[in-house]
# Entry
Amino acid sequence: MSRIGSYFIFLGTLFRNREKLRVYLSLILNECVSIGVGSIFIVALVNTFIGAVTCVQTAYNLTNPFVPRNIIALIVRDSTILELAPTLSCIVLAGKVGSNIAGELGTMRITEQIDALEVMGINSSSYLVLPKVIASVLMFPLLVIMAGFLSILGGYIAGTLAGVISPEEYVSGLRFEYKPFGVSFALIKTVVFAFLVSTISAYQGFNVRGGALEVGSASTSAVTNSCIAIVVADFVLTQVLLT
Amino acid sequence: MIEIKNITKTFTDRQVLAGIDGTFRPGDTSLIIGGSGTGKSVLLKCMIGLITPDSGEVLYDGRNFLTSNIDEQKTIRREMGVLFQGSALFDSKTVLENVRFPLDMLTEQSAAEKNERALECLRRVGLEGAGDRMPSEISGGMKKRVGIARAIVLNPKYLFCDEPNSGLDPLTSIKIDQLIKEITDEYRITTVVITHDMNSMMEIGEKIMFLYKGNKLWEGNSDTLTQSDVAELNEFIYANKLLRETAR
# Structure
């Protein structure tokens, strides 16, 4: 409980005694490049294959001849938009971005770089962490939108190449019973996950005490705790927004 | 002038500082010496505001740092320069950007003025050609000098150095000590140096404070250091075999 309390106190320090706006703009831009552009490849790769696998596995399980084949595309679409693209992408990003944030801040802590900022009178948590949080909240949704497209495309390619569904059936399934709120739901989830991943990872890194071993442990804790927070928040948001 | 009064600090059940008093004057290079774990670094961190002591006062020219509000503390902090033990240079910035960083963050000068001032400080520490290099590309001694350049870039009134010689060879250590002494004299800075390097004590110790188990056991200067009758101090300074032999 005390760790949860200190996490919320840490969140409070991000927004107190902030530096000038111009200081943050360049930092946010750099973080957007690092978090966003740096994660495109892994997010694209994972989601393309997840879409492909979802399509083929759904086809494998649909043995009833009375169920139309375009249902396969509908299942790929809905599972991608509602769950796979936002949640799975954010878990991948927790591994890549979260461990990076925790490692970077942890190293800065043990090499006294954070102390150096503090003695200059700079709010180190706000200066170092706030740009990462803002960049995550901006870039994660863009990555998830890309992930959704690629996952559905992966399903199309795999399904048509494997001959389990025709291109016309796939497109018709994608258009069938489409609810636009699904996309809003995915983006709301993503923003929440982005905030959780960036702040939990930053908290872990910022509070490292010790040496290289502790930085490694902080990175591991950052990923583990972020993943736990993602799945819990996923359940809560699904309950609140979809029921 | 910096005054510290009755500084105490306890971590869980271990008292690290037990009521330390001291005065550090402008233009003096004051040394805080003692073995590992005697509270030197904790005292320095209490003085620069990285650790809040349990009790006591830290006065910067009469201004009580610990009871000041955030804005007053910021003002005092901007008059401080700190050289950390590991130099604490920002890995992602070049040497020049590291030195310019306090100017970027805390002043409204033009880019040209900031660059000029940062280069002037790099020249002062003998690193005029190293501005474009990354911290990972320079030696430990150069890192210390960049740390000094960054510490003096805002023309501080108070300079703190946490073990400036750690990890350096004796020759480089002497150069760093001399640089600190020259800068202190040149700008009449109040300089506080944490060290357990005997060379530093003998070369630049205009005022020396000896800490032992969180207590101040002795105070003097480099001339009186070897004439003390404090057993703990003698044990500390004559731990070095060469000094023991010389003393005989």
Chain B has a mean pLDDT of 88.
